């Protein structure tokens, strides 16, 4: 019969292995998301409807628009890079599929 110490030790070992596996899965998913080129659109700048508030915060609002314009250009570049990556991947997968069909005789 196993002692309580042995049972706890085996549980701890299983828990450590489980947690290590979870960490590796998380790392893999983060890397996959990064390599997939997750492009995030910038948030539109806010313009108050009150003209006095717009004047009071004109410098901040102007800066928000400048940041948005720079960020939207980065976003468009990201989308184009992701589009190019996806087309290349689709071409490679199509070639892989052709080789697979040759292997199975279809």
Alpha-beta content class:
mainly alpha
Unreliable spans: none
The overall average pLDDT, rounded, is 85
Coarse morphology: flat
User: Please, how many domains?
Assistant: 2
Tell me the span between the first and last alpha carbons.
58 Å
Number of strand segments: 0
Q: Roughly how many Å is the radius of gyration?
A: 26 Å
* Beta-strand share of residues: under 5%
- Summarize the biggest pleated sheet: none
**SSE ordering:** HHH
How many H/I helices? 3
Task: Walk me through the structure.
Keywords: Plasmid. The chain is an all-alpha fold and 106 residues long. It has 2 domains: 1-35; 39-106. Helices cover 80% and strands 0% of the residues. It has helices spanning 4-35, 51-56, 58-104. It is flat.
Could you give a short description of this structure?
The protein is mainly alpha-helical. The chain has helices at 4-35, 51-56, 58-104.
Task: Write the SSE topology.
Blueprint: H1 4-35, H2 51-56, H3 58-104
Key words describing this protein structure:
single chain, 106 residues, mainly alpha, 3 helices, plasmid
